[in-house]
């Protein structure tokens, strides 16, 4: 059984030209992590909305690059039984800022944010460690993230 990836863009945000490339990339990530018959949603938004989410759900009154919200519910339709693993929100305002900070392309940064969000929905956590420029990760989640990104280096979302 395949997976379902639902992608949306906040109303106030212009739809990126590369939006259709997100689903195939995330499907690859999900396959590598053993997802099967699972559904997740991805919302691309701006920093203002991301700050509202971060404040409401984490008590942090500032925007961030990516947030993940685990779900775990199941539902059935004509195609079978689906497990809703959760939702991912990604700030398109922060994407170019992060890319510049990490001295990488926006494509590589978007792939990092997508992998990061999916790993959180797969039960991984990295607190208090975060990816820092020039500092190799130590915790299991961030090491797995960097290894997955190396495996998917030839894939592109921003084609």
Structure description:
With 159 residues, the protein is of the alpha/beta class. The protein contains five helices and five strands. Strands 1, 2, 3, 4 and 5 form a five-stranded mixed sheet that branches. A hairpin with a 2-residue loop joins strand 4 and strand 5. Helix 3 crosses helix 4 and helix 4 packs across helix 5. The radius of gyration is 15 Å and the shape is globular. The two termini are 28 Å apart. The mean pLDDT is 93.
Architecture blueprint of SSEs:
Blueprint: E1 4-9, H1 22-32, E2 38-45, H2 47-58, E3 66-70, E4 74-77, E5 80-91, H3 94-102, H4 106-121, H5 140-151
Parallel strand pairs: 1-2, 2-5
Antiparallel strand pairs: 3-5, 4-5
């Amino acid at each position: 059984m395949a997976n379902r990836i639902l992608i949306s863009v906040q109303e106030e945000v212009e739809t990126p030209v590369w939006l259709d490339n997100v689903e195939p990339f995330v499907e690859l990530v999900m396959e590598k992590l053993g997802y099967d018959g699972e559904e997740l949603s991805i919302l691309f938004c701006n920093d203002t909305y991301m700050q509202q989410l971060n404040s409401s759900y984490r008590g942090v009154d500032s925007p961030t690059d990516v947030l993940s919200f685990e779900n775990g519910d199941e539902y059935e339709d004509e195609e079978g039984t689906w497990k809703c693993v959760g939702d991912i929100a990604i700030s398109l305002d922060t994407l170019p800022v992060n890319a510049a900070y990490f001295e990488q392309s926006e494509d590589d940064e978007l792939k990092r944010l997508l992998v990061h969000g999916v790993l959180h929905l797969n039960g991984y956590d990295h607190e208090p460690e975060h990816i820092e420029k020039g500092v190799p990760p130590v915790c299991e989640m961030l090491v797995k993230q960097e290894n997955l990104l190396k495996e998917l280096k030839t894939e592109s979302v921003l084609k």
